[in-house]
Design brief:
heterodimer, A: mainly beta, seven-stranded mixed β-sheet, four-stranded antiparallel β-sheet, 0% helix, globular, B: mainly beta, 12 strands
Chain lengths: 114, 117
């Protein structure tokens, strides 16, 4: 158990819908990262937050947004869902987001868009 | 160009044998970190080992060690005395240095390791 929690574990929804994925980092970690893992694209970095502020952006679509709240939990919002958004979405956290920081991953949320 | 290359899509290894999973990387940044993660069939991503570009010694964590050859830009994972529970996907990842505070991990395609009894 990494100490990172993600809810829900599974999510099935229809095209065009909007969903919210939630992540609670390990105790004491200030940085949260979101990743998408799909069969055709592999693991892709989406976005990073550090202590409530956006720090880095990766291959995140405009239909997707995220935020980190004062209690450091984070939410990833996916809207206007398409079939291709079906993937495993990981949240990871690290202590300070620095160069030698290790990211610890949550169990993931498996999203299926029908 | 691929920044992280894992050339072995799949490997079969006999239980109790040692196994080496290959990873080569490409970066011009002098400061970087290399990570190995394990993903069992259940899906979670488990951190195994870290090697910093300035570390003088190869990293070790229990049965895992990292064969870091900086000049060759390789960071191979060695698992000693493999066990059935080692069957999983293994990912090599890299984080480059302080570029615009971007700490994202860049991932290889992974190697599927199957341990045979």
């Amino acid at each position: 158990d990494s100490g990172v929690t993600q809810t829900p574990k599974h999510l099935i929804t229809a095209t065009g819908q909007r969903v919210t994925l939630r992540c609670s980092p390990r105790s004491g970690d200030l940085s949260v990262y979101w990743y998408q893992q799909s069969l055709d694209q592999g693991l892709q970095f989406l976005i990073q937050y550090y202590n409530g502020e956006e720090r880095a952006k990766g291959n995140i679509l405009e239909r997707f947004s995220a935020q980190q709240f004062p209690d450091l939990h984070s939410e990833l919002n996916l809207s206007s869902l398409e079939l291709g958004d079906s993937a495993l979405y990981f949240c990871a956290s690290s202590e300070a987001g620095g160069d030698t920081d290790t990211q610890y991953f949550g169990p993931g949320t498996r999203l299926t868009v029908l | 160009a691929q920044k992280i290359t894992q050339t072995q899509p799949g490997m079969f290894v006999q239980e109790k044998e040692a196994v080496t999973l290959d990873c080569t990387y490409d970066t011009s940044d002098p400061s970087y970190g290399l990570f190995w993660y394990k993903q069992p069939s259940s899906g979670e991503m488990i951190f195994l080992i870290y090697q910093g570009s300035y570390d003088q010694q190869n990293a070790t964590e229990g049965r895992y060690s990292l064969n870091f050859q900086k000049a060759r830009k390789s960071a191979n994972l060695v698992i000693s005395a493999s066990q059935l529970g080692d069957s999983a996907m293994y990912f090599c990842a890299m984080r480059e240095g302080y570029m615009d505070s971007n700490y994202q991990l860049i991932w290889g395609a992974g190697t599927k390791l199957i341990i045979k009894p």
